[in-house]
Amino acid sequence: MSASRKSLVLLHGLGRTRLSLWPVARAAARRGYKVHNLGYPSRSARIEQLAEEVGHRILAVAEGGHVDVVTHSMGGIVLRAAVALGVVPALALHRVVMLAPPNQGSELADRLRDFLVYRLATGPAGQQIGTGDESVPRRLPAPPFELGVIAGRRSNNRLFGRVLDAESDGKVTVASAQVDGMRELVVVDRAHTFIMWAPDVLAHTFSFLEHGPSSVRCHREPSGEGSSSSRTSALGRMPRMLRGAHDDIRFRYACDPRPPRPVSFDPSCVAKALTVPCPIVLPRDGHGHAQ
After folding, report:
1. pLDDT single digits (tens) 220-254
2. What is the pTM of this model?
3. Residue 226 falls within a domain, yes or no?
């Protein structure tokens, strides 16, 4: 960490409070970060309204420079929406780590959206994080910033696990957490609600924030039980911050070595980005082909 303290913004998920990210805030403060753990009324407004409010607060923290950001669950969608709407310039974000984000929408939200208890518990935003026509995550462009994603594959809720019927953290599937342009994906044996409390998750988070993607090559570790020798071999490839700390951890790792493609919305419909699908403008080569 440099002599000047780097700013780190934390954004919690739907129905949670800033206290839920206390483990990340504590670890960041110990590493010398100036922590801005932002709370916002996640159940009281639509995502576009939350994005505008949170976006202006992030700009105030950046003070014309840039910040690192760690989000949990829907907090990552709020951040992406703030960038898509032009409230937060991509240059204001240095590196971002998203914990268990529903980047492709939540299949669980699709199944629960019509239940009164769910509607009362999640508010307007809960109706926008599914995978259908009203899905905000599916309408957002690829993140134009350096992004690392940490997804969980342990479900502590058997009912939700059966509903999702895929590798998941009990609320978000591993497939849904991924998004085009991400630089790194780490899949850990953790559940959704308290994924931020896990030592391995904190190690991966700060490794990405401070050093960027840990490898240019894409690789994926086996996730089976395996033998003691196979686990030892896997530990030899773990990030240096985690190596030797948790001998029983088994995880899968993958990365996308391609940098995020610069994208922009048609200026005529930036304000409608979350309500009307807008054409995404990709850079083109000399022959007029999209790069």
Report:
1. 434 543 333 323 233 333 333 333 333 223 333 34
2. 0.75
3. yes
